Amino acid sequence: MSGEAPAGLAQFPITRLCMLTTVILPIIASIADCKYWFLVYDDPFITEYKQYYRYVMFQIAAINETDVALITLIWYNLRHLERLFGSRKYASIIVLSWFYTTATIVLMNKLFNLNPFFRWNRLTSGSLPTVLSLFHFYKEYTPQIYEFDVRLTKPFGLRSKQLKWTFNDQFMINTLVMIMLANQGMSGLATGFLSWLCGVFIDKGLLPGSEVFRVPSFISRPGHNQGQTLVTGTESDAADVSESGAQGSVTGGDEEPSDEPARPLGVQFLDTFRM
Amino acid sequence: MEIDGNTILFIFVILYFLYSSPSGDGVTSQYEYNQLQTLRAQYNDEHSQFANMTLSENFRNITGLKLSYEDVLKSPGINATYPIAGKDYNHWSSNQGHMILPESVITEIREDVWSGKEGVFPPNITSTLHGLIKLDSNKDYQKVPMPVPEYYEPPHDFSQNFNDPYVDDGTLSNGQHNVTFNEGQVVIEIKAADTALAYSDARRPSFFNSQSDRWRMLHVNLHFSDFHDEEKHSINSRAVYDIKRGRILAISESAKFHSLFAFPHYMSLKEDDKLVFDEVKLLVEEYWNASNFVDTRTMNYLQESYAVANYKCEFLAYFQLSPWSAYSPEQLKVIDDELTWPLGRRANLSSLPPINISSGIVYSPDCGINLRVSSVSGPRYELHVRKMRDTLLFGIVLLASQIYLLLIQMQHTNTPSMVNKISYWCFSLMNSVDGSLAIIFFFMTSAIPELYLPLVICSFACLILASVFEMRYLISIYASQANEQNVSFTTLLRRNTGSEERNAPTVIPDEATISSHMYRRYILMMFLSMVLILSVATWSRRIRTPFECVAFFVLNSYWVPQIARNAIKGNEPRRRRASPGESQAPRQNKMPLLWSFVIGTSIIRFLPVAYVFTVPSNIFYHHRDIRYVVIVALWILFQIVILYSQDIMGARWFLPKYTIPEGYSYHKGISSADLLEHGSSPNYSIDCAICMNDVPVYVDDIPKTHKVDKESYMITPCSHIFHTQCLESWMSYKLQCPVCRAPLPPL
Predict the structure, then answer these.
(1) Confidence check on the interface: ipTM exceeds 0.90, yes or no
(2) How far apart (Å, rounded) are the C-alpha atoms in residues B438 and B456?
(3) Among B25, B331, B599, B740, which residue's beta carbon has the most beta carbons within 10 A?
(4) Interface probe with A: pick from B407, B516, B729, most Cβ of A within 10 Å
């Protein structure tokens, strides 16, 4: 198994789905002026209006554009998990995380609001809880590939010591997650922590389902990314090759044998603007 | 560009002209400065009179309010001056002795219009209402003179002496003063005035309306016209809204009528209630302060109100709203909040009743016109916007599916021979519709800022559809049909009298040339259609309606060119196409248009027309005409049926035999002389220039060769010979002879 992930998202259908949903849904919502569907405030939406559907909705789309950007980038970084687990297991874990984090957050929110002093009114927006739960899996199962030091010699005048920071290849996702948590304030930090715990519990089996539950197979196309462990890696690689080879022969055996390849539509469009 | 001293000087001069525009007040000369100062002084003076006024005092020196109706009745030629000898300035009662309204109108307002009791009325009534207006009388009443004060007059000569006495030469245009129709339609736009003040000075606490649960200041624009849109009147006015009783008083303002100060007196018309007077006076006072009224009078305002004063009448409008009895004030508050800032509160917005003016009088004191308004209603502005948004979203979906269908269609016809069968004008017609739509949507973005996002998306989708996808397709259609057009075109250019027969030139313009040519044409077309659409919107309905009908009809005839094209190309009927030469490669003689494209496009393009003409509450307020829609639907259906019949029975079934021109046949025998020219080989075969193998040919005068199948080779018009399979696969890329580049007739 090589350290390099395949380029593009063609091999990561679930990651692609998540990224596209994260970007496109808020855009549609703002065109249709229904962004408020994805807001949860304990008061008045839940206690007064009893709009419990918001609990189901709030993780689907982020309201703030910054959150949209951050969550999209984090989904992209989490694609290694899809490579590791395979699309179907990854999808199952996402669904499980979504379910458990939502339940935990709602429960904790209700419990916390029993205290008479502080109110935890606003829940986070966007798939922050799910992402944080997956972040545990990422940390647990993705090997660190390299690390590097950043040294500052005497940054604060002559008498200061040398500063040294060690980063590894995961510093990008770490930073993104931190910004995302900070961006949503206290509620973001609290929710993030709870969700991360959920991730740990799902992984350890305390919250059941990670080994048993699988999404129906038509959601994640079978055979597309079966997961590459050391043992099966070569097999699935070979399968991929033969598959693509078969496809190639199908396209090659088109009805008209010709030496000049047919220009695809995209090329034709580009040609139009080549003056 | 070389930059020398002159250039820099030139740039500075340009910049000077750009930035030396009039300052904040728009004053450009000493004369105008004096004008503006006088106006402000006059307003200040009037305001100080107003500030000291009580309900028992008459108006004194306030522009437009110097005379009462009875003054005019007594002495018809009276001048509006102050003071008038013998006029009682120390008493007020709401009758024609003190007001500018005649007694009959005052009674009518008291008894018919403002007859309602206190009730629950919506505090925020921003909306656009539609209804009917009826003329009560346009000659029974005396006209109360309202002269325009002198200082409003523009200068008469270049010396611009401000103190020159103004001589009225009586040429003042009478404008559109009289209302001559008996019945017409009215549109009343109501906007809250306090939102317009949001930009006032931020440091000062700009708290404007301290009685916002009781009184509201509004901007009311009244537009009324006869049913044919031939005589249009439009009044901009300020209004006071009594929330408790649902009463609205709107008074227009111009150079001859400073109506702001009239509100307290004219509002306390029904019960001579001191409370009403004081509250309205406070409202006006607060409005005056919050809007910084005197300082915000600019030169622009002055000139505009002078112009309005000259060509329009002044109007007072008394309206009575219907109560929303089903709601409590708390519910109304929730509804209001939800409308302005939607969060999903518990407000049942779908069942919200419309804003309805149950009765109203519009009276013009200086023109003596009395109009009655009845049952004018419309949804709250936010609800209307919501409806428009939903319609636009549906439009976006339609556009997206049109793009998808077009892409499928383009994939279907991916060879020049296939594209050749498509009609250029069919897609050109669709393209012009989509291009114009893009422009309309783009213009609407500035008109309706609330809908900016969906409108921009619509406009963008139209633009993408028209100028990228459809243009791309048009270019390839044009390119594939270029050799058909070239013949006549060049003959025309060379002024050939036909003495020398010229073949089509061998040079076919390449796609880049064609595309730049087409884009130029497209942009010109968009520009022209924009001008046309903008001007059509202002036409009177008598001309507009037939124009619209013809235009929609023509624009919905997009399959007609394709039917004609099919007939020219002469597609084979379906059952003959079903059995091509068995062993040969698939021949390119399918129907050029996909059925999914034909039907989908027809539906997509018909739905908006159907919506505009059949749904009575459509967002464009377009009139309803079901018969026309049915005709259009039948017409489209008829076109589709003809297309289908061409598919089934062959494209030329409706043409008589002798009108059908003979197409070029690639499969024919040759004479032995031709064979010699090609350099015959002993077995009567010729080299195919594509595959370099032998092509056995059918030679007419040598019976030995008659067992050769004519379908196995093709002879081009330039008499080059190839294998059928070789040339056909070549022709899916280019319709030029591979040997001599002469254009080839498509299959």
Answers:
(1) no
(2) 9
(3) B25
(4) B729
